[in-house]
Amino acid sequence: MHSLGILLSGRGSNFVAIADSIDAGRIADARVAVVISNRAGAPGLATAGQRGLDALVISSKGKPREEHDREVVAALKQHNVDLVCLAGYMRLLSPWFVKQFPRRILNIHPSLLPAFPGLEAQEQAFAYGVKVSGCTVHFVDEELDHGAIIVQKTVPVLDSDDEHTLAARILEQEHIAYTEAINIVLGETFEIAGRRLKSSQKAEVRMQK
Ligand code: GRF
User: Fold this and answer.
1) Is residue 122 lining ligand 1, measured as CB closer than 6 Å?
2) Domain ranges of the chain
3) Fewest CB within 10 angstroms: 4, 9, 129, 192, which?
4) Confidence at residue 172, expressed as pLDDT on a 0 to 100 scale
5) What mean pLDDT, rounded, does the chain reach?
6) Same fold, 1-102 and 107-209
7) Which residue's alpha carbon is nearest to atom 10 within ligand 1?
8) 202 pLDDT above the threshold of 70
């Protein structure tokens, strides 16, 4: 049984999508062992509590990055976490944190990386005038929005879009992409050469509306 640790700072819709995929059997042999937020008021944390999951606040306020990371890693290890999923976690991980879970930390970003890393990626893409955007699930390394890409999903930018409608359609794809990426990583059916990940697994997920 795999134990997932979810790190979030806000709304938590990607966390919910992952938890729903586990409950529905789209991610097999896994459970959410702990949900950790650096912000006490994160709505995603309340949702985790309502779902009966272990939900912790480990505040990052005023702490040096690595000190906070050490507290978070200690909590993840206490819960025997073997896959860390960043789901709207608004913190860059220290190199030390990254080393604690080699190829076992994933992040989701709402653009087709390497385009538009950082904050407000959907707004950046919209303002740039791209005709296609999307989302990326990637391994986490020491650099922001940078590690090897596991899954990407494209989303067309429509003439009728504004940044909010575009972000909403990207979010729908995020929820599908994260489940696919988790299945690839937990299934260990991939190889990485340089930045290129090749998966021999058909990870495509069918979501029921
Ligand atoms: C998502 O757009 C994700 O790609 C980005 O932060 C947002 C988090 O949304 N990293 P939610 O908290 O999962 O709803």
Assistant:
1) no
2) 1-102, 107-209
3) 129
4) 98
5) 95
6) yes
7) 88
8) no
Residue 157 contacts by C-beta under 8 Å, 6 or more apart in sequence? 125, 126, 130, 131, 132, 133, 166
pLDDT band at 66 (very low <50, low <70, confident <90, very high): very high
Q: What is the pLDDT of residue 199?
A: 87
Domain at 107-209, CATH class: alpha beta
Long-range contacts at 18-21 (CB < 8 A, ≥ 24 apart): 18/85, 18/87, 18/178, 18/179, 18/182, 19/48, 19/51, 19/53, 21/179, 21/182, 21/205
Mutate to test the pocket of ligand 1, among 108, 112, 116, 182 (most ligand atoms within 8 A of CB): 108
Closest approach atom of ligand 1 to CA 15? 13
140: left (phi over 0), alpha (psi -120 to 50) or beta: beta
- So what CATH class is 1-102? alpha beta
| Ligand 1 center–CA 14 separation, angstroms | 6
Query: From CA 46, how far away is CA 183, in angstroms rounded?
Result: 26
Q: Is 140 helix (H, G, I), strand (E, B) or coil?
A: coil
pLDDT band at residue 203 under the 50/70/90 scheme = low
